């Protein structure tokens, strides 16, 4: 009987360690994903009622902008995303941009889009479940993820930095050439 308990305890310990080994460690900015990895798939419902699944966008350069109405840095960067990225590339069939709003109701996200004067698609992320595929839930929201046509992450940004943003714009343009 003691031997059986010991074996069960050992099995439990091994299973616990295996679970820990599968946990993904975040980088210093809270990202769980890394450049070069496949972007985690998800389906997001847009404010117009349509749904978009990331894997269905393969063959396009995709930019994800994680945002929220309460985020001051997001509000600061959104006009630049609108002007320097969306307005330049929205007609390009090889490009997609989705703003993913963290855990806010539809009416608030629509009002947020109007107040920031962005015309690119905004999606809903109830419970921040999409965000949690890319970064720690407790990490700051302002993030951009650039994904190549094969679905691999090619650039990750955090906060708004004019030099980093300029390199993001340049990278998008290079990928669309």
Please give a structural write-up.
The chain has 177 residues and is an alpha/beta fold. Helices cover 39% and strands 21% of the residues. The chain is built from five helices and seven strands; from the N terminus they run αβββαβαβαββα. The chain has helices at 2-22, 72-89, 106-116, 131-134, 162-176, and strands at 43-46, 51-53, 61-67, 95-102, 122-125, 143-147, 153-158. It has a seven-stranded mixed β-sheet, with helices on one face. Strand 1 and strand 2 (51-53) form a beta hairpin. The longest helix has 21 residues, at 2-22. The chain is globular, with a radius of gyration of 19 Å. The relative contact order is 0.20.
Brief overview:
This protein has 177 residues and is an alpha/beta fold. The protein is built from five helices and seven strands; from the N terminus they run H-E-E-E-H-E-H-E-H-E-E-H.
- Figure out the total of helices: 5
Strand adjacency order, main sheet: 2-1-5-4-3-6-7
C-alpha end-to-end distance: 70 Å
Proportion in β-strands: 15-25%
Helix/strand structural class:
alpha/beta
Task: Tally the beta strands.
Answer: 7
The averaged pLDDT comes out at: 90
Helix proportion? 25-40%
Regions with pLDDT < 50 over 5+ consecutive residues? 6-22
Characterize the biggest β-sheet: 7 strands, mixed
Radius of gyration: 19 Å
Gross geometry:
globular
SSE order, one letter for each helix or strand: HEEEHEHEHEEH
What's the topology here?
Layout: H1 2-22, E1 43-46, E2 51-53, E3 61-67, H2 72-89, E4 95-102, H3 106-116, E5 122-125, H4 131-134, E6 143-147, E7 153-158, H5 162-176
Parallel strand pairs: 3-4, 4-5
Antiparallel strand pairs: 1-2, 1-5, 3-6, 6-7
């Amino acid at each position: 009987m003691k031997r059986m308990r010991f074996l069960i305890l050992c099995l439990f310990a091994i299973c616990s360690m295996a679970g820990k080994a599968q946990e993904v460690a975040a980088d210093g900015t809270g990202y769980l994903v890394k450049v070069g990895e496949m972007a985690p798939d998800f389906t997001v419902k847009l404010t117009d009622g349509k749904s978009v699944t990331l894997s269905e966008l393969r063959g396009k350069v995709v930019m994800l902008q994680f945002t929220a109405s309460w985020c001051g840095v997001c509000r600061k960067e959104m006009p630049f995303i609108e002007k320097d990225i969306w307005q330049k590339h929205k007609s390009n069939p090889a490009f997609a941009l989705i703003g993913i709003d963290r855990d806010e109701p539809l009416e608030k996200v629509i009002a947020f889009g109007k107040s920031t004067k962005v015309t690119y698609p905004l999606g809903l992320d109830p419970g921040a479940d999409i965000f949690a595929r890319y970064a720690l839930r407790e990490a700051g929201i302002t993030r951009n993820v650039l994904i190549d046509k094969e679905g691999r992450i090619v650039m990750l940004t955090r906060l708004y930095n004019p030099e980093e943003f300029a390199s993001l714009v340049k990278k998008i343009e290079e990928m669309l050439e």
